[in-house]
Amino acid sequence: MPGDLDLSPPEVPEPTLLESLLRYGLFLGAIFQLICILAVIIPSSKSSHEQEAEPHDLRTGDPARKPKGPVQQVRQKIKKESKKKR
């Protein structure tokens, strides 16, 4: 019985060109994804300081409020029209 066992490695066909391209393309895609994830996790110091500085520079104290003049004028017109109808 020990002489009947074939212990040689199985025959594996050589990978085709398409299989090779697919394999290396998947590796490149995985590396690209890792680089993108690292870019999100570790932002560069220059861009983060610029983004933080700009909003604070634009805000100079209280936010600008719209004047209430046009709103009051509309109310006055409504009151005048209601008085005319009487």
From TrEMBL:
It is found in: Membrane. It comes from Aldrovandia affinis. Keywords: Membrane, Transmembrane, Transmembrane helix. Belongs to the UPF0239 family. Residues 47-65 have a biased composition (Basic and acidic residues). This is Protein MANBAL. GO terms for cellular component: membrane. It is a single-pass membrane protein. The keyword tRNA processing does not apply. The keyword Signal does not apply. Its main location: membrane. The chain crosses the membrane at residues 20-42. Residues 76-86 have a biased composition (Basic residues). Residues 47-86 are annotated as: Disordered.
